[in-house]
Amino acid sequence: MWDEFRKENQLCEQYREALEDLPLGVDQSMASAKLSNGLPAEVLEHARQCDACEVAADTFWTSRELLAGPLALAREWNSAAMSETKPWFAARVVAKIAEREMEGRRALTEWSGAVAKLASRLAWVSALLLLVGTTWFYGPHGAQLNSQSVESKAQATPQYLFDSAAGQGTVDDALVSPPEK
């Protein structure tokens, strides 16, 4: 577009670049104030006197006016598409992740709760059985029956702490098979 306005003049080029750098919200009436703040005085004076700069400015403002409608429509579509898809997509994905985490926690809680209840009940039953068994064993009749049988066995077979000569047989007796006796 700027091929017909290409000149070797640096002042014209600076003016065209300043026009292109204007923000989109700046219209033609506000442009002179913005340009006077950002450009040197010699460039502004040159732009007022140069016919090529005047034609470049007219072309710039005409093209900006023509493209303002489609550009605004494209921005509106883009912002609508971005606002509809991204937050919805992100919210959906975050909700799905939260649902899976909750499902995992629920399964873990069910198992840990069931195991804790089972362990507690098993501990109580074991303690009760231990108490009942101990009471029965050391009770009035359990200890007498048990002690008599232990005493009778102890008297019948003498037990020695060390090897006794009376209890040992010969080596040949150990090697003899049972039917030969």
Summarize the structure.
This protein has 181 residues and is mostly helical. The protein has helices spanning 10-20, 28-38, 41-49, 51-137, 142-156, 171-175. It is rod-shaped, with a radius of gyration of 53 Å.
Q: Can you tell me about this structure?
A:
The chain has 181 residues and is an all-alpha fold. It has helices at residues 10-20, 28-38, 41-49, 51-137, 142-156, 171-175. The longest helix is centred in the middle third of the chain and has 87 residues, at 51-137. The radius of gyration is 53 Å and the shape is rod-shaped. The protein starts with 9 loop residues before the first helix and ends in a 6-residue tail after the last helix. The model has no long low-confidence stretch (mean pLDDT 76).
The fraction of residues assigned to DSSP E strands is: under 5%
Please tell me how large the radius of gyration is: 53 Å
Q: What would you call the quaternary organization?
A: single chain
End-to-end gap: 129 Å
Order of helices and strands: HHHHHH
Could you give a short account of the major beta sheet?
A: none
Instruction: Kindly name the structural category.
Output: mainly alpha
**Whole-number average pLDDT?**
76
Helix content: over 70%
Q: Which residues sit in consecutive blocks of at least 5 with pLDDT less than 50?
A: none
Cα shape: rod-shaped
Number of helices: 6
Number of strands: 0
Index terms:
181 residues, mainly alpha, 6 helices
Fold topology:
Blueprint: H1 10-20, H2 28-38, H3 41-49, H4 51-137, H5 142-156, H6 171-175
Helix pairs in contact: 1-3, 1-4, 3-4
